[in-house]
Amino acid sequence: MKTGAFMMPNNPPHRSILDGHKHNLDYICFLDKAGYDEVWIGEHYTTPWEPCPSPDLIIAQAIDKTSNIKLATGAFLLPYHHPAELAQRIAYLDHMAEGRLIVGVGAGGFPGDWQLFDVDAMAGVNRDMMFESVEIMMKLWTSKEPFRYEGKYWTVQLPETEDPTRFHLRPYQQPHPPLGVTALSPQSPAMTMAGEKGYIPVNLGLGNQYLKENWDTYERAVNEAGREADRSMWRLGRDIFIADTDKEAKKRALEGPMGTTWRDYLLPLFSKFGLLDIMKHKPGIADS
Fold first, then answer.
1. How many domains does the chain have?
2. In this predicted structure, what is the pLDDT of residue 100?
């Protein structure tokens, strides 16, 4: 069995940015020494509980402080980055990590971030931007010939190879680092895209029905592309607390930082945006 960790990363608002950053690095080092296979680090902009606008900054520092653990962005929120700039940053980071980088991408699901970048996510613009960005980055990483890409949101041109200003940064891992795609909504189009292209599916480990719908969506797309779905590729992030007894684990989870984060941040957030149902292990459970 392989083990991994997902860091949003959550830090209580009273913790300074620097202290939170040091805490995140210490945690990654602990995971590496404990034998975890990989750690995924998130990106958000407008919530004081998740003050990490650039997971690659944490990864860049963690590379030299760790030995074996794979380091994953979880995820780069593609509507908020120019794909040509991000493709170069990823390629450079991939060389630094020497094969330990996984690139997670997402459309962005936090309303405050949508407003900050003026992205109309309610109309699905963020999702369309993610699809276009992935297509551009893949072309930049793999194309051997010059090209011009004119999309709905970005235009990118790969210069002639004899041009002294030509594009030169390609990933360390060929043809590109492993790509993971995050999804929040059931039957997410992002899962369809991941299945069609053979990318890693990434979900929060919420309610059973929610997970089933996401996996079914992914598996259907994989099958339609003429392949068999491999469930070992699926990354699920959920809270786990281990102690000497179940009773002690429950008490420490509820009374410690995990419980505080859920009570003061995550549950109110999910409730505000009508997402409590996707957390329930069966229909009909009261929100309370």
1. 2
2. 98
